Amino acid sequence: MQLLEDGIIAALAAIGLVTLLFALLSALLRPRGCTAEDAFAVVPCRAGEGAKLERTVRTLERARYDCGGFCRIVILDRGMDEEARKVAALLCHDSFDVTICNNLSKFNESE
């Protein structure tokens, strides 16, 4: 009976050690966060590009999470229609680091 208990304890310890090593290696190999505080990605948007805008912003968010490199996503208004503005507003509401901008030079100066 003692041998069975020792075997179970050894197996649980091995599983815990493997889990700890996996968590440590995944944290080291996949860095999160920004590498440059003032870097941002610009997504120009025109009328009728609401669905394309959402796909682009979601893809950029995943890329930023996986690889880093930039902190903000700026949606540049180049004549968006009402539907595209609604999509952009929802994206800004969902993520704290997505911004709508009409003039990129004003956005850069405010930083």
Shape: elongated
Quick one: how many beta strands? 3
Mean pLDDT: 81
**What is the CA-CA span between the terminal residues?**
68 Å
Rg, nearest Å? 22 Å
Strand content is 5-15%
- Widest beta sheet: strand line-up: 1-2-3
Count of helical segments?
4
- Characterize the biggest β-sheet: 3 strands, parallel
Determine the structural class based on helices, strands and strand pairing: alpha/beta
Roughly how much helix do the residues carry, as a percent range?
A: 55-70%
Give the H and E element order.
HEHEHEH
Unreliable stretches = none
Describe the structure.
With 111 residues, the protein is an alpha/beta fold. 59% of the residues lie in helices and 14% in strands. The chain has a 3-stranded parallel beta sheet, sandwiched between helices. β1, α2 (50-67) and β2 form a beta-alpha-beta unit. The longest helix is centred in the N-terminal third of the chain and has 28 residues, at 2-29. It is elongated.
Write the layout of secondary structure elements.
Elements: H1 2-29, E1 40-45, H2 50-67, E2 72-77, H3 82-94, E3 98-101, H4 104-110
Parallel strand pairs: 1-2, 2-3
Key descriptive features of the protein:
single chain; 111 residues; alpha/beta; 3-stranded parallel beta sheet; elongated
